[in-house]
From TrEMBL:
This is tRNA glutamyl-Q(34) synthetase GluQRS. GO terms for cellular component: cytosol. It comes from Acuticoccus mangrovi. Residues 3-260 form the Glutamyl/glutaminyl-tRNA synthetase class Ib catalytic domain. InterPro entries: Glu/Gln-tRNA-synth, Glu/Gln-tRNA-synth_Ib_cat-dom, GluQ/Sye, Rossmann-like_a/b/a_fold. GO terms for molecular function: ATP binding; glutamate-tRNA ligase activity. SUPFAM superfamilies: Nucleotidylyl transferase. It comes from the Bacteria. Keywords: Aminoacyl-tRNA synthetase, ATP-binding, Ligase, Metal-binding, Nucleotide-binding, Protein biosynthesis, Zinc. GO terms for biological process: glutamyl-tRNA aminoacylation. Its EC number is 6.1.1.-. The gene is gluQRS. Belongs to the class-I aminoacyl-tRNA synthetase family. Pfam families: tRNA-synt_1c (PF00749).
Amino acid sequence: MLRFAPSPNGRLHKGHALSALANRHMADRLGLPLRLRMEDIDPGRCRPEYESAILDDLAWLGIAWTPPMWRQSTRFPAYADALARLRAMGLLYPSFASRREISEAARVPGIARDPDGAPVFPGDDAILGAAEAARRRASGEPAAWRLRMADALVRTGPLEAVTVDADGADPVRRPVDPALWGDVLLARKETPTSYHLAVVVDDAAQGITHVVRGEDLLPSTAVHRVLQSLLDLPAPAYRHHPLILGADGRKLSKSNGAEALQVLRDGGLSAAALRAELVPLL
């Protein structure tokens, strides 16, 4: 089982089309269903009109998928259960520093960075000061929840991930290093989950055997493997396809203003021409 899992917080661009085609290609090669999952855990950015546009773009591109479609916004109880299990193991702790406060702390020269370039969380005491951190802990205000990575890795021991080629063949076991991420965020104050937790829980619940996604998400596999191990969830095989870069050398993204498929369609690009452009990149 495979899945294509876009976020309905904007229009799809060529990078999404490549990922959808890569998933469809491997599903066909392996004779497995391809599911569609909307990663819509952010209610402030995800909109029904974007979901409708995604469905329209996939139909135009000729990407067939097997119903039913999942929405992560309906799955919060499952994520809460996973958090409760980790909390019972003593592997979670509350964090009160805001995103702004963490960003300001990140300006300190020499601070450690995770594989995405974000600061490795140094703890509330380091960001807020011990007195303010203690005050917030005692106040009962909403908290985010983070994984005690060092303790988690004592439980799991060394971890590996299985990678495969574009056809789902030639499996290779590779070591992963979740410690590079530090104490990752598993639930936000305003959203009772995170990408890392939701994707791991849902992949297991849907019986996903092969995960195909962009190589920018390759480092995230380490976080997903530690969560799979802690929660006794099966680990899929992974394929991380190349990215499409813009004229500025950065990957195409909604935040960078990547041209939407709808704009390209309106400009006369055919689905056949786009497929011919992207299939060699799989």
